[in-house]
Structures are given as structure tokens and as C-alpha cells.
């Protein structure tokens, strides 16, 4: 008779769960799900030896085990701490944990740029979510942030080292998935950076997966960069017969164009199946794929904005009661109004893109003055407006 596996009883935020010996606190919390699950920035369940770097998953162990119920003296990283039978863990029920997490977020953001408006990761960035949910409003850091030049890691990937949080996920992915690692974390402390010697390109056919595991916008897809904000794209699950990988991917559409191809991610934001570079970078035609259907995303995701699956629209009766007339004609005032005839550039005030001559040496106290190349604006409209440059 096979020996039954012993299960440990663990209580996390007053919810009890039974897990096998050897399970980490984080995975026990994931078994419960919901808000009890600590956030993670470096741990990745699909990769070995991850976790233990970022400290965002800190929790308090209020009782070590049934046999030794003393609390652990310090907060512990839940992704690296295994459960014991009778262990009691506090996550969101302990204000000290939340306070410590704020400190961790502040620390992660010490050198982070305010790039979100131009960053390709915005809208699906773990650091954005973490800062929003667990961060402070301000920072106490007063020093100059460290900056790096952008580096092309081969033809498909660009590294923005300024955004990197040194989670090591890409290093483990290159080691374990791509099978060859030509990059790593060089130097230590404030000088630590992800780099390749002599900027050697990463040419494994599975290396594109580093883009998906990167929790921030440090590793970006060069075939997608600046093409579109992710919330304007429509994710769809699709597959193809691929000799290199499972071929099961997520396509991101804008209209009928496939703007990017990524691996599918699970509810923890982790890749379900690794995909090859050919699927990711070379198959950008709709006809390359068999479409399975719209991706079901967490309803809180910003990517969900404007995408509704299975929604039944109410019957449109306007046209019916208008005897077949198109309802938009009701609002068509252009034929009877002069509103479009006004030349906005002719109105005294701040220069517009059509009138500003961009002469950087011109003098004046506002943009119109600069355009005119004269002193104070005689109309007075701009000079008294605090919002005018
Ligand atoms: S990596 Fe995330 S937090 Fe950083 S700039 Fe990009 S979107 Fe913003
Ligand atoms: S580049 Fe991205 S995945 Fe790699 S260490 Fe930096 S943040 Fe992590
Ligand atoms: S996720 Fe646990 S230390 Fe980073």
C-alpha cells in the first residue's frame, strides 16, 4: 500500500489550508487565492531557483509550527519559506507587513524612471500594479537616479536597464528555457546591471521568453515597441503547428493587424507555455494562426477596458421609431451652424502648433511673444495666464 502523503495545516490571514510538506507559504496562499496572496516580483513558479531577491512577498510568521509556536523574529520572504504543520501566517491582516511592503516598493522605485507614459509595459506592468496597491505616494530619495543607455540585445529585444529591478527572472529564463545564457547580472550593489559582455546578442530561439517574464518594461519586444498602448489592443488566444514549441500563444490585435505575439499567462501573470522566437516575432499574419477566441483576462486589468466578451447589446429602437432615419443625423448640426468656420488660429492667445514658429532664440514671456519675436503680449491674454509657458 502506498504511503499517504502527510499534509500540513497552515493558517494564512485566519484562513486554514492543507498543503504538502515542502510547500512554500506563497504557494499555500495561492491555494487559498484572492487578497491573501502576497505580491511577487522575482519569484516565478515555472522557473527553478527564483525568488528571494525582491522582498515584496514579505509576511509575518506569528507561530512557527504546532510543535514550536514561537513567532519568527523578522518578516520572511514567503516565496522562499516552507510551511510547517500548525504554522500561522499574517499577510494583509498585519499592518506591519503592509508598512514593510511600502518600504520595499519605495526601495524598488529608488532608481526607477517616471517612464510609464512612454513605456511599452504600461498597462501590464507588475511594478505599476505593485506601486498602486502597496506603494507610498512619495519618495524620500534625494539623489540623482542612475541611468543607462538603451541596449539592443540582438535583433528582437531591447534592454532599458534604467527600468530593471534586478529580479533575475530573465537570467533564469535564459539558463533554463533558452538553454544558453549570454547575459547576467554584472557588478554588485548600486552598480549591478543586467548586461552581456561586449553586448553580445542572445540568439537562442527561445530567448524571446525573457520579455514575458520581465515584470517591468526593462526587456521590450523591438517588433512591438511604440506600436500601440496595450489597452488599445485586443488579446485573442490562438495556436499553430510549430515544430519548435507548443505554438499556443496570445495574439494582440489592432483591427485586423497582429501587433504582437506573446505567451499565454495564467492568473498569477506567469507564462503557461514557453514559445519560440519564430512564433513570437515572425508570425504576424492573422492567416498564420488558428484563432480560438478572445482571451479571458482578469476583469480588473486595464487591458479589459473596452473589451467585453459575451455581452448582449440592447435592441436598437431609435432607427425604428424614426422611420428608418439614421439617428446620428439628429446630432448633425454642421450644416446649420458656423462652428466649424471659426479660425482658431486667428483668435489672440497662446500659439497653436500651426502658428508657433519654434524659434528658440526669440524673446518674450510666453509662447505668443516668442512667435511674434517681441516683448510682452499686447493682448495680455497669455501673460496673465499662469498655465502659459
Ligand atoms: S516598467 Fe512599469 S513602472 Fe516602470 S516605467 Fe514601465 S510601466 Fe512604468
Ligand atoms: S531585465 Fe527584467 S527580468 Fe531581467 S532582471 Fe531586470 S527586471 Fe528582471
Ligand atoms: S517574490 Fe519573494 S522575494 Fe521576490
TrEMBL record:
Cofactor requirement: [2Fe-2S] cluster; [4Fe-4S] cluster
Positions with biased composition (Polar residues): 352-368, 378-389
Start and end residues of each stretch annotated as Disordered: 351-389
Domain named 2Fe-2S ferredoxin-type: residues: 8-95
4Fe-4S His(Cys)3-ligated-type domain ranges (all copies): 96-135
Domain of life: Bacteria
Alphabetical keyword list: 4Fe-4S, Iron, Iron-sulfur, Metal-binding
Name recorded for this polypeptide: 2Fe-2S iron-sulfur cluster-binding protein
Organism expressing this protein natively: Flaviaesturariibacter amylovorans
